[in-house]
Amino acid sequence: MQKARLTKLTDWLKQQDTDAAFISSTENIFYLTNFHTNPHERLMGLFVFKEEEPFFICPGMEVSQAKAAGFDGEIIGYADHENPWDKVKDAIAKRGQQDVQKAAVEKELLSFARAEQLQTILAGAELVSAEEIMNQLRLIKDDKELQILKQAAALADFGVEAGVQALQSGVSEMDVLAKIEYELKRKGIREMSFSTMVLFGEKSGQPHGNPGLTSLKSGDFVLFDLGVVLDGYCSDITRTFAYQSISDKQKEIYDTVLEAQLKALDASKPGERIGELDQIARDVITNAGYGDYFPHRLGHGLGISVHEFPSMSHTNNDLLQEGMVYTIEPGIYVPEIGGVRIEDDVYITKNGHETLTKFPKELQIIK
C-alpha cells in the first residue's frame, strides 16, 4: 500500500517536472511510510525523487520502529550530537541529486529555518508546494482506512455514552471529561483526536469552549465534542443533551440544528457540490431566525488528521467523491441560553453515504 502511494507521488513529480519532494509532517510521513511518531524538535523527513530511490531520515532511536512499520527504502538514523543535515547532504550526493532545480515541500508546515537548510543543500532550488498533491492522495480512503475509521467512530460513540452515564447534579465539566477519557483508556485508547470538550449551560454556547469546574444543574444544555486516535486515524463526534428539563426556546434551537444536520446528510452523495451541503444546513438555520448564531463552516475532512481536506464550506465548489470522509456539524450558539451542535462522521459510498458515528441524535433529556 505504501509503495503504491509513493509511486503516485513520484508520478506527480514527473508530471510537474519537479525533481524531488521533502515530506516532513508526521501525518504525511505516516501516510507514505506507515510509520507514525512525534520527533519533537528533531528532524524527520522523507526525501522522494523523480528518478532515484527515496530515503527516510529520523532520530536514531526511532530507526528500528521505522523499519518494523514496513518502509523498505533506505532509513538513515542520527544521534543527538550529530547534525542530521550532513547526513541528508551525503544521501543526496550519493544519488547524484545535488543539482535539483525544483523541490516540493509542505509550504504551510515547513519552518523557515528548515527551508533555508534545504535550499543550502540543494544549491538554492526553487521550493514549490506539495500540499495539493498530498491532500488529493489522502482525500479518498481505501478499504483498510475505512475499517479503521469505522472502529474509531464506534469508540467515539462509546465516549459519548460514558459521558452521559457520568451526568448528575453538581458534577463538574472536568469530572465528566475525566470519566470519558478514563473509560476510553480502559479500551486501549492512548490519544484523543483533540482536547475533549464537555460544556454545561451557557458555556455550551461557546463553539470552542474550554471545560472547567462549572457544575451541572437542571435545565442546562450538555455538549460533548470528542474523538479518538486509533491506528493513526481520527474520529470526531458532537452530541448535545438537556439535563432534567428543557425550555421551549432550547427545544426550538435543538430541533433546528437537528433538521439542518439531517438535510445536509440527505444531500451527501457523489457528484454533489460540497458547498451546497453547507448552504442547505445554513438555510435551515437562517430561515428559523438563527443565521447569526451559526458562525462556522458545516464541517471538515477527516482521516489521519482530525481536520483535513476538504473544507466543508459554502464557498467550496469541489464535488463529493466516493471514498471521501468528512464531518457534518451545524450548530447554533446563543449567549445566555447555550448552544447545540450535532456532528457525525460521514463516508461517501457509490450511491450515497454511510454515517460512521451511530450514537442517537434525537433530543434526549437526561434525568
UniProtKB/TrEMBL annotation:
Cofactor(s) the protein needs: Mn(2+)
Source species: Metabacillus idriensis
Keyword Metal-binding belongs to the record: yes
Boundaries of every Peptidase M24 domain copy: 148-350
CDD domains per UniProt: APP-like (cd01092)
Organism lineage: Bacteria, Bacillati, Bacillota, Bacilli, Bacillales
Family the entry assigns: Belongs to the peptidase M24B family.
PANTHER family from the UniProt entry: AMINOPEPTIDASE (PTHR46112), DIPEPTIDASE YKVY-RELATED (PTHR46112:SF10)
Superkingdom of source: Bacteria
Record protein name field: M24 family metallopeptidase
GO molecular function, one term: aminopeptidase activity
Keywords (A to Z) from UniProt: Hydrolase, Manganese, Metal-binding
Coiled coil: none
Entries under Gene3D superfamilies matching the protein: Creatinase/methionine aminopeptidase superfamily, Creatinase/prolidase N-terminal domain
